[in-house]
Amino acid sequence: MLLTGLRGVGKTVLLNEVERLAEEVGYRTIAIEAHEDKPLGPLVAPHLKTVLYQLDRLEGVGNKVKRGLAVLRSFLGGLKVTMGELTIGLDISPEEGAADSGDLEIDLPNLFCAVAEAAEERKTAIAILIDEIQYFNQMELGALIMAMHRLQQRQLPLVLLGAGLPILPGLAGESKSYAERLFNFPEVGALSEEDAARALRDPALAADVEFERAALQEVFRLTRGYPYFLQEWGYQGWNLAPSSPITLQIVKQATDVVMQRLDENFFRVRFDRLTPGEKDFLRAAAELGEGPYRTGDIAEIKGVKITSLGPVRAKMIKKGMIYSPAHGEVAFTVPLFDQFMLRAIPDFPS
Ligand SMILES: Nc1ncnc2c1ncn2[C@@H]1O[C@H](COP(=O)(O)OP(=O)(O)OP(=O)(O)O)[C@@H](O)[C@H]1O
Ligand SMILES: [Mg+2]
User: Is the CB of 8 inside a 6 Å radius of any atom of ligand 1?
Assistant: First the structure.
């Protein structure tokens, strides 16, 4: 399963909950977070080592765990990975040729199968949870998909749960068609007005505090149901209210504080990572409303050729600032970022 959605909608919260549930029913879990410039192999290898060591301590006969370690060692040879100063210490000889071709699309499936066979032998199952999965490159995502495909064909007990910005539109060819068949892609988005109201009302009620109806409506109008924003308005509203109920007046008072905090933190950290060219691109996009935007329309506003925007567009997708919901289109990954861009750069063209 791959949970996808915009920034701050609750993907990580959900993934952590899934991990807790998986552990509860007996899975061995591996939780990793992908980063912009951190390759998949070195990221996952130490966790597989840990899990193989755990399996080694479980009851059971057979040599699949030892083999798993030997294949992992072979995989490391293929990566020629040095983790900081030292290679990850594995006191076992590599199984030559098992996962050391250097081609991740071959090696990763072999490695995952060997680890899953070890789990099967010890009558357990493994769940790999990967957050920010969009940061893997095409080749890594392809390898991951191939690996899961192989595991599924062989019905081995290893599952993948990912979360991140939408990746499917960016995948090409075989990877894409496999991915479509292999994974569920539940979309995590904003809450409905009713759910948004409950998210604020229920925890407050537990402390005998109520929200005025008009207050809840105003919060929904401002947040559009996005979980992170609900959290912020709830927090400030709670702190500002002298007593129950939390009124519309209080919410309005909270809004100034929240907007200022969001602008200074949530939005600003992302803004500050942009180059001047990228800011200009996004500011032009914001002229067009909340998006998605056709790249051609942005080019038109800027008065440049569409091809000249290619590199800046690609860079921002890599940074996770925008994504492509459909061919030829881009959209902000951060809800309400278009409005922030208008506040951050009031004059355009500057
Ligand atoms: N079930 C929940 N209960 C309470 N708060 C929640 C819940 N889900 C989301 N939130 C709020 O939303 C915030 C963002 O959630 P989370 O970090 O999981 O989003 P995300 O989708 O992983 O965002 P990003 O793409 O930036 O990583 C949380 O810090 C919390 O304030
Ligand atoms: Mg997250």
Answer: yes
